[in-house]
Amino acid sequence: MASANEPVLFSIGEVAAIVGLSRHTIRAWERRHRLRPRRTASGQRRYTTDDVALLMHVKHAVTRHRLSLKVAFGAAQGDLSVPAVQESAAPGLWCSAVDLLPEMFLILDVDGFISAANRAASTTLGLPRDDLVGRHLAELLERGASGTDVRALLQRACVARTSFELELLAVSGRQAWEFDCRPFSSDGAAHLAVIGRPGGLRTSGQMS
Predict the structure, then answer these.
(1) Is the CB of residue 159 less than 8 Å from the CB of residue 137?
(2) How far is CA 97 from its chain centroid?
(3) Pairing of strands 114-117, 164-170
(4) What is the mean pLDDT of the segment spanning 23-50?
(5) Phi and psi (nearest 5°) for 167?
(6) Fold (CATH) for 1-89
(7) What span, in angstroms and rounded, lies between the C-alpha atoms of 179 and 67?
(8) Residue-wise pLDDT tens digits, 118-161
(9) Distance of alpha carbon 109 from alpha carbon 185, whole angstroms
(10) CATH code reported for the domain at 90-208
(11) Model pTM greater than 0.70?
């Protein structure tokens, strides 16, 4: 049992339950944003209350204020001023306009993590927007397509300016979706705008 002077530590499973993020997402955020949990002698992650508070702050900034992960972590770790964070928030008018689109619209970082989603994406996938943000696109794939290298697929699509197809677990069941992907930059960070519509029956993950 820990003494009164020892910090309270949490396992990654406990943190995932507290913050509302998947273990996969937490590990990915660690690699990219200087989050360094402690390790047990056997190498298992252990998080302090400060780590948990940081993750909760970042998730709130991303889901509620629509900040990019880079900006959200920068603000939480004291690297950015409040005005810089406020200026990076997506305008309400833009968000309202995107919600009018019948197609699925996602904003991803270059590694494939979702930072914003429109109403059509939430409705189609049967997940609240707060649950979509922070997930990797690969987490939404139909189970048989889980081996698809989504990051490589996105990179090829952006370079070649071509569409690609993935099978997703939609509300209506397993369904093939065709996506167009366009890169853009905001606040010095690279992002991908992805628009999806129901596709044909080509093999999942194949470039069109």
Answers:
(1) no
(2) 21
(3) unpaired
(4) 88
(5) -95, 120
(6) Multidrug-efflux Transporter Regulator; Chain: A; Domain 2 (1.10.1660)
(7) 23
(8) 889 999 888 888 888 888 888 887 654 445 677 787 878 777 77
(9) 10
(10) 3.30.450.20
(11) no
